[in-house]
């Protein structure tokens, strides 16, 4: 019997719905004893806060891009999970959420080539998430998005419930053009089972064995910066500001995430902007790890200073 820790790799472009899908899974009985490793492109992580109250063990690997700078850190996070698992904290499996800009191929290579990991960890499957709002554009314009699909065993379509969403059929056809033998599922379908997708025994694809690691690179012009805010935020004014910002610059703002302390709520708000779209915020209980309010931006060719100045103007009003 293969008693290595089975790991499912969850990939997908920035903001496509990876964390949401994993949260759905860890709320099922099957997901209860799952170790999670989350990598974020950005100097401050947000996703691990969204998991912390639900998952058994969460390891955050932040700061770099999974496909290059942080491979050793991801490997170390995997060592820690395996060791915890051997020291009485038994996980039924692990999930690795890659950063939205990552090419998953190098991390698969790390899993398959590192002698220690190879004997302790088994890649069960690669799940790629693509959303129906930005997905078609991303496939056209973002090489990382195509790469993520091409290497997957299963592709999960998200956000088909949203206004301006492409149809599942159109998105599915675009996915199958890149990866003809992939299984395509729709997260908003009533019979969609997150536990079957992320907790399944695995159906490793042969196509990913043929990847060429040397191709791995992501665009050089992408940058990430964090804006920290001392003041409590006036939420209605902030949403108007953010909506206007995304309307004007959404093509250059790939992703905004943040945790905000507002003047009206006793919780922290997790906010999500994905290109031109601002998603409804989620409330998080205040943790011990009070970091104040902060916003993480991932942009392509947009200066931090312009955004900071505009935000400061809002806060001074
Ligand atoms: N309406 C709708 N919203 C969704 C769906 N899936 C995800 N979202 C929202 O999309 C936003 C981004 O989702 P995340 O799960 O954080 O996306 P992610 O891929 O983990 O983002 P990164 O880690 O930054 O790449 C959040 O506000 C989610 O609530 C969906 O199927 N329908």
From TrEMBL:
InterPro entries registered for this protein in UniProt: CobW-likC_sf, CobW-like_C, CobW/HypB/UreG_nucleotide-bd, P-loop_NTPase, Zinc-reg_GTPase_activator
UniProt keyword DNA repair present: no
Segment forming the signal sequence: none
Annotated Pfam families: cobW, CobW_C
Keyword field contains Nucleotide-binding: yes
Recorded superkingdom: Bacteria
UniProt keywords, alphabetically: Chaperone, Hydrolase, Nucleotide-binding
Chain ranges of the CobW C-terminal domain: 222-315
Reaction equation(s) it catalyzes: GTP + H2O = GDP + phosphate + H(+)
Function: Zinc chaperone that directly transfers zinc cofactor to target proteins, thereby activating them. Zinc is transferred from the CXCC motif in the GTPase domain to the zinc binding site in target proteins in a process requiring GTP hydrolysis.
Protein family per UniProt: Belongs to the SIMIBI class G3E GTPase family. ZNG1 subfamily.
Protein name (Swiss-Prot/TrEMBL): CobW family GTP-binding protein
Highest classification ranks of the organism: Bacteria, Pseudomonadati, Pseudomonadota, Alphaproteobacteria, Hyphomicrobiales
